[in-house]
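Give me the 3D structure for Large ribosomal subunit protein uL6 alpha-beta domain-containing protein.
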Amino acid sequence: MLRQTAQLLKRPALQQSQHFSTSTVVGSHIGRTPLFFPQEVTLDHDLTPIQKPRIASELNNTLLTVKGPLGQLQLPIKPFVKLDTTINEQQQESVLQVSIEDATIKEQRAMWGTTRNLIRNMITGVSEGYRIHLRLVGVGYRGVLENNSRSVSLKLGYAHPVVVDLPEGVTCTIPQPNRLILQGINLQEVTSLAAKIQQWRMPEPYNQKGIFINDETIKKKEGKKK
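Predicted structure for Large ribosomal subunit protein uL6 alpha-beta domain-containing protein (226 residues):
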């Protein structure tokens, strides 16, 4: 009996089983969610294919321009992504619906929710802006603005100050010597700059010193006892 069972298991039909799904492809739950934004923000979607892109992946993309009280941002969008904007007069707001041509194609489904999130970040940026607080925790740690406030000089315990240039569109204010506030309309640029500055003094758990972002905390570790 055991020999017969072993012989049956050697058959290809039993060794490799195939599973086929007949369920309907479900689109992105994030992508299909309407995006509400104030009427002071405008969206201009240029459907002309981009022929001279900054990077190769943007070739033949369309270009979305988002304008608001704080400035404007642009986003290359895949040609299969469709944008439909309407105005809700009662609520005095605009409504954006993002869709794609074919939800059965994996690439299109992947870009559906991603595109909506990027547009949402842009709308927030041009209407409210982004702000990140940095806390310099350590003896003598302090920051000073230089070069007409286009760079910040940081004293972080090194032999020489660390000078960080601010990218275009990002500003820095120093309400206290050990407090920095980064502001801008581009979320990626603001967060990238904060991470770049933090790399000079990552928070360490023993003395709890370093550069902390917003309400970031770190659990203290006890050193080795002699």
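Residues 27-127 form a domain with the Outer Surface Protein A; domain 3 fold (CATH 3.90.930.12). Let me know if you want a second pass.
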